[in-house]
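Folds abound. Consider this:
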Amino acid sequence: MPDGIRNGIVPTPAAAASLAALSTTVPGRRMGYSAALRRGRGVRPGGAEEIPARAALLSLTVDIVIPVFNEVRALADRIAVLHGYLCENLPLDWTITIADNASTDGTRDLAAALAESWPGVRVLRLEDKGKGIALRTAWASSDSDLVAYMDLDLSTGLSALLPLLAALASGHADIAIGSRLTPCARTVRSLKRDIVSRCYNVLLRRLHRVRLTDAQCGFKAARIDVVRALLPHIEDGAWFFDTELLLLAEHNGFRVIEIPVDWVEDPDSKVTIAAVAAANLRGLLRVRRAKLAGAATIAMPARPTPRSDRAAA
């Protein structure tokens, strides 16, 4: 059977080309090619030539979760793009987790074929639908130092991924999120979607007195210890999940940083704006009541004491 064909599934030409280029693997290793990349760039893993900031980043692992539901047409090509980008540009060990939300169109079988063929890809099969359920399950089962998620449509430019993770690796942030609404962001989307997004985020800031500009961008990452502290307190299992995560984080003093992103709307998006907006509004009110009642306070993981670099001078 030709390489890349499993269970009668034939990748599209783009996916097949990517698979052929990535077919050389390190025996027994399922993570990304960061070790090989470091050698190619003259960096010695764990060696004295590494500067501290780079050494800290290279020693970490990241699990990137992609929630999917009935995406058999787009899955192989989009994962090929992401896989190729990570191999070429991400200097730390990574895993792509395809979190299948009870798909019924062959997505599950295709995801399994990709995981079998490509190093660094795994599949999480879920029987219940909901983006929040997918992220909760995937993050809770992850053994990586950092966890992230992005939408399969890859609307957010992947060049923002490394700055997102670097903010976490340096200890400067507990959660890092992409924002389409900061002054430096560049966004291409319909007027209707832009207005709805801006109104939602204004309401979020007024109702909860937070500084977030864009709670809904599908491009977020966090430290695993922070995620483990927050997950038991998040109730939503659908689209409000990540907004609730951010509201709880801000309320409890976690450090949240926003990274400007380039974002181009996917014309084939399956999101029903009105339904999502209504559910999110109910979520905003629920979390506000919880905060007023004192039910949104959680214990924070230990943090290092701030120090001045002048002391080392």
